[in-house]
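Ticket #254: bound-state structure for S-adenosylmethionine.
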Amino acid sequence: MSDPNLNTYNSATVIKWYDHLDALTPIEKYFFELHKDLILRSNILDIGIGGGRTTAYLVSICKNYIGIDYSKGFVETVKTKFPNADIRLIDARDLSAFENNTFDLVNFSFNGIDYVSLDDRKKILSEINRVLKPNGVFFFSTHNKDHTTFDQLPWRNKSNNLITNLKTFIKLLPFLPKHLKQKEKEIRLKEYAIINDSAHNYGLFTFYTSPRFLKEQLNTYHFYDIALFSKNGKIENDETLDDWIFVTCKRSVT
Ligand SMILES: C[S@@+](CC[C@H](N)C(=O)[O-])C[C@H]1O[C@@H](n2cnc3c(N)ncnc32)[C@H](O)[C@@H]1O
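RESOLUTION: The complex was predicted; output attached.
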């Protein structure tokens, strides 16, 4: 069956967009610096590499690097950029290419985990847990359902001015008929939602989670030492209004 998110991640314009990204976010810099010693002696699995933004940083410093993506276009792009790197076409829902207890660190950056259903997100968490060594580290980010502008019309974002909002509306106008059809497939529940937000011209169904539900899921899949961060630092009491939640956690020994 056709997967609208995979179609978007295989489209030439989207590939070009990610191809140009090269900087790490401040939280990523902080995390990679904090774990530099581990990274230097690590087997790393980098999932959802896109245009290779994190490949550029990790491949040169870790012991063994494997980068994967389910988009053929991204895999080809990154193979061209890093011809000596181990880059593979693999879907995170099925990591059977890897043995149990293989990696010291798994990275799934830029909310790549948010482009599947709830059941498939569970599969991904279970697979990552399986391929991590005991006490191995999982680092990723995800969209926050408690974000102040969650589910708001993109051209009514209060932080923008009128001209910006008008430009956004005009840019998105041609894609609105498709969006209105896709809205029927959206899911909105208290703890999570899967919505067709305006990213890549309404090209994606994106998973948004509350911090509480996120932690609950990680506990269910046997992760511990769970720490959530927003752009402003550590999240206390599961409360943040930021758009992204950055997560570090470890695979439990049992
Ligand atoms: C938002 S982009 C981020 C790209 C890159 N990590 C970066 O930080 O620039 C999400 C990436 O995750 C990949 N992705 C989404 N679902 C995936 C899955 N189930 N298995 C593997 N890759 C996936 C997409 O193809 C895309 O490259």
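RESOLUTION NOTES: The longest strand covers residues 132-144.
TICKET STATUS: resolved
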